[in-house]
Amino acid sequence: MTNESSNISVPPPSSWPHDRSQFDWRAAGLHYFGYSFYLKQVFGFRVQRVSVDAGFTCPNVDGTVAIGGCTFCDNRSFSPSRRLPRQDILDQIDDGISRIKRRYKCKNFMAYFQPATNTYAPVEELRPLFEKAISHPEVLALAIGTRQDCVPNDVLDLLEELGAKVPLTIEYGLQTIHDKSLQWMNRGDTHESFLDAMERSVGRGFEICGHIMLGLPGETHDDMMETAREVADSGLDAVKIHNLYAVENTPLATQVRNGEVTLMELDEYISTLVDFLELLPPTMVVERISGEAPGSFFIGPQWCLDKPAVLRAVKAEFEKRDTWQGKKYRSPEA
Ligand code: SF4
């Protein structure tokens, strides 16, 4: 495949996900298998994500499995009753690319269907959306964020078909393996739905990323490490990890203000995160280790807003302990 805008040869989708054991991130001086390192190894050049809002809602927002959405999620923009008419997908991609190009030198993009549940519609409605995105001449890959209870087999068949055309990643909002926490966050499903989705998703030729949240109320350090051990051998190709943070207009905002929920301090997060990463296999890509806390409407913890400081603290912790991702990982086959 050739990216028409840049004339750069792109690895064939049949080789995605790649054999990640060939990428020696430790030799590159890294403490974990970071996403930008991974993308550069796979593509040979920078690839930037461009966010697409396809106008979906969520089954725990529209009342199908719950109402109100997740406790921490400001879902007003994708509430079915408040939905604003959205821009055409190709126009969104054009606008997003122009914005990114003002900040970075980049010619290659991954269309990222990001807000809400992006497989929450019949296949006949999903297909034209995804096909339109990959028809954009500067888009060479696709990422789709969704809930694990919204991927019936025909949707996975569609993703498998598209994944044979372009590198494709599906992102599941796992967050935790503990049902007590899923109940707290009003997710409207149980861990069983993740296990079921993974069983039907692995081996279809697309990459699978799981979102993890540390510092959920009531979760002990042991609970979080239990999540890490299960994630390690879950079949996930990649993870995105961040701490629980609060934004305005959410039930969590009220709970934090009332003192019902305490958010993690930086030191605790860094130490827990490094413990977590030590338990993951060295071949699992770590797409993110800090939240993308929005400046406006943000409540806390305040340290989230200084992302470079968080990344420096993570590096310092790895160095202090002389450790790295996977140091404590034990393969089930070992
Ligand atoms: S966190 Fe995800 S599933 Fe929950 S309401 Fe927000 S977009 Fe929907």
Automatic annotation (TrEMBL):
<keyword id="KW-0411">Iron-sulfur</keyword>
<dbReference type="InterPro" id="IPR039661">
    <property type="entry name" value="ELP3"/>
</dbReference>
<dbReference type="Pfam" id="PF04055">
    <property type="entry name" value="Radical_SAM"/>
</dbReference>
<dbReference type="GO" id="GO:0003824">
    <property type="term" value="F:catalytic activity"/>
</dbReference>
<keyword id="KW-0408">Iron</keyword>
<feature type="domain" description="Radical SAM core">
    <location>
        <begin position="42"/>
        <end position="283"/>
    </location>
</feature>
<dbReference type="InterPro" id="IPR005911">
    <property type="entry name" value="YhcC-like"/>
</dbReference>
<keyword id="KW-0004">4Fe-4S</keyword>
<dbReference type="InterPro" id="IPR006638">
    <property type="entry name" value="Elp3/MiaA/NifB-like_rSAM"/>
</dbReference>
<dbReference type="InterPro" id="IPR058240">
    <property type="entry name" value="rSAM_sf"/>
</dbReference>
<dbReference type="GO" id="GO:0051539">
    <property type="term" value="F:4 iron, 4 sulfur cluster binding"/>
</dbReference>
<keyword id="KW-0949">S-adenosyl-L-methionine</keyword>
<protein>
    <submittedName>
        <fullName>Coproporphyrinogen III oxidase</fullName>
    </submittedName>
</protein>
<dbReference type="InterPro" id="IPR007197">
    <property type="entry name" value="rSAM"/>
</dbReference>
<dbReference type="InterPro" id="IPR023404">
    <property type="entry name" value="rSAM_horseshoe"/>
</dbReference>
<dbReference type="Pfam" id="PF16199">
    <property type="entry name" value="Radical_SAM_C"/>
</dbReference>
<dbReference type="InterPro" id="IPR032432">
    <property type="entry name" value="Radical_SAM_C"/>
</dbReference>
<dbReference type="GO" id="GO:0046872">
    <property type="term" value="F:metal ion binding"/>
</dbReference>
<keyword id="KW-0479">Metal-binding</keyword>
